[in-house]
Amino acid sequence: MSATLKYLVVSALLAVLLLKSSAVAQPAPIESMSLEVGRPFPIILLPRMNDGLPDTIVNYRGQKIIMHIFASW
Amino acid sequence: MWYERNKSLEAEGKVKTLGLIQEQHPDRCRLFMQWKQMDFPILVDSLNLLDVTVVPMMVLIDEAGVVQAIRPDEKGLAEFVAAPPAAVPLVPPPSGARNVFDMANRLILFGQPDGLDRAISMYEQQCTDVSEDSRAHFRLGVSYRRRFDNPETRRTGDFAKSIEHWERALALNPNQYIWRRRIQQYGPRLDKPYPFYDWVSEAQRDIKARGEEPVPLAVALSGSEVAMPERGGGDAGEASKEAPIEPDPAGRIDHDQDSLFSIESVVVHATAKGNRVARVHVLLTPSGEAGAKWNDEAGPSVVWIDPPQGWRVDQRLLALVPPAGGSFTEPRSVEFEVRPIAPSEESGKAESNDSPVIRGYALYHVCHGADGVCRYLRQDYQVRVQSAK
Prior knowledge:
The complex is a heterodimer of chains A (73) and B (389). Helix content of chain A is 32%, strand content 14%. Chain A is built from 1 helix and 3 strands; from the N terminus they run H-E-E-E. Chain A has one helix at residues 3-25, and strands at residues 46-47, 54-55, 65-70. Chain A has a two-stranded antiparallel sheet. The relative contact order of chain A is 0.08. Chain B is 28% helix and 21% strand. In chain B, the strands form 4 sheets. In chain B, strands 7, 8, 10, 12 and 13 form a 5-stranded antiparallel sheet that branches. Chain B has a 4-stranded antiparallel sheet with strand order 5-6-11-9, covered by helices on one side. In chain B, helix 2 crosses helix 9 (200-209), helix 4 packs antiparallel against helix 5 (113-129) and helix 6 (134-149) packs antiparallel against helix 7 (158-172). Chain B is elongated. The interface between A and B is large, with 43 and 77 residues.
């Protein structure tokens, strides 16, 4: 491989790497935490309706849970 | 009823019932639970962190915290209840990526008012950096509305910004039912699937009749939240059939030169494409700096509405009704709907532009200052009703 060709290949690789790293640095949309069968229910702290204190599904481990997702409207 | 069935399963030690709601104002659900005499723990996910797209929905979660079924049928529920217990790991399983917004979410859900400002800044930045991040727009809308609902923290434009970001979120993801409902809650009747909180007064009455004190609502219901849906398109709805008399056609009432009241408007468009009806909220806030207060003893304060040619409103004169137990310094609002005049309704007035400007004015009785000077004043406003994207 000639020196010029080597230079071009290395430059191209560097350019790709640079593009990739800049892509990683880009702000990204917020990821989904959606519910899926077979996957753990997301562990997030949410306020309890009656007292506003933080609660999480972890506090109910060891029990079978029937969760009703609903609205009063 | 599912609740009775769950209760008996719970009494047998077979299951635990949990609730999850996405409502902006959870105290309304508390009232609902009190009314229906239901009692189980409910988690509040106003930001919809769990990306729920439809309600109601039942989710079955095993002893290890793993989702075993979503919207199961009767057979699936029975199998879940009868299944041997899942092994509970010592450490909870990982459940998805944490992200930089955990802090913002906690500030919104649990923080002090200044924390809400910080969270709004973080989500504003995200919406600038990733303009098509629909989740960020929705959550920012929730945050603005939360700040608006607290008289200590609200700033001019908060409600308008919440609607703007909710509409943007829905435009980016039109299949998000929860987001659509959040806009429809404040939107025009033609776009409503049902009245959202019309049950509240009946619930309060029933609860009092039982000798209990109803759960107080932190935020009063707005007109749009109790309005009945409009079917068939284009009736006058709540409007009076008699043409109202304009209260100050010649502009003779003194203008509020000292800005004793501020006026802001919020336009909520229909979420359905091609539906050009919009609901307009006009809010008047007494200036704390000027020590301004509503003077209800002197008579009703009102808002007059002048729709542009080719458009009509369901009511042109609306009273700014004092809330029960108000402090005379609280913001008050009126709501009305604006729609293009159909070609058959009035010949020659059917050409409606896409961005009508509604003009009008508020007339209010106000007392202000250390010596409590009371006056009757006018303030003009205009609202541009841009068509929904």
